[in-house]
Amino acid sequence: MHTPDSSRYYKRTVLKETISSVHLGEDRPLRIYLPPGYNEVLSYPVLYCQDGEQFFNFGRLATLLTAGILDGGLEPAIAIGVDVRTAVRTSEYAPEGERNAAYIRFFAEEMVPYIESRYPVRRTPQERIAAGDSLGGTVSLHLALAYPHLFSNVLSLSGAFFAETQRQLEAAGDLSWLRIHMLIGLDETEVTTERGTFDFVAANRRTKELLESGGARLTYEEKPGKHLWGFWQQELPAILRLFLSD
Prior knowledge:
Organism: Gordoniibacillus kamchatkensis
Pfam families: Esterase
CATH superfamily: Alpha/Beta hydrolase fold, catalytic domain
Number of strands: 10
Oligomer: single chain
Largest sheet: 8 strands, mixed
Strand content: 15-25%
CATH class: Alpha Beta
Shape: globular
Structural class: alpha/beta
Order of helices and strands: EEEHHEHHEHEHEEEHEH
Mean pLDDT: 95
Protein name: Enterochelin esterase
């Protein structure tokens, strides 16, 4: 029986760049993953990740993508990790945060054009994916709601979908253009955050109902797991296949 050489999975290309943002009033580090066989004359679907440092380090995103592309039937894709400072994360990612509007404008109006001017990523909403964990899942959904002509795919790992998100979904109307995958851990009924302790399971179940009412194309998973990268990392390979299967 042939066993794939897993050492190949660690031979990956991750570039680091910095973008200067007018909307944020500061520079923001980016991580750019280029797939095996990367060729500038080709074009690639693109995965845009909040919490870039954590997605790449704790989520092992580059390794998982490389393994999936080489041996798991994943379509080669470019992945972008957008780093965030812990001190401003909630302010930028939470829909009621004072920096949230500026962050979403930075993402859509500065960062996406920056990437598209430098890398051969595809430019349709169907081939852009916004991904995030916890509040990163929240801001990814709100990014799609604010810029549906840019993003129609959202990957949410235990999204923090509370009152303001639910209010906006109730008012959103037709969501048939939106494709979203939601993962939630059954052990996430009392998650302590800097804003308090929340029942993420109940919040995700209610958000699922609202998305379904709007006609969104939804895949939803509840599995035993805690609000930790150890849980999300294990589930990422299968979730990536939903969006990036050949």
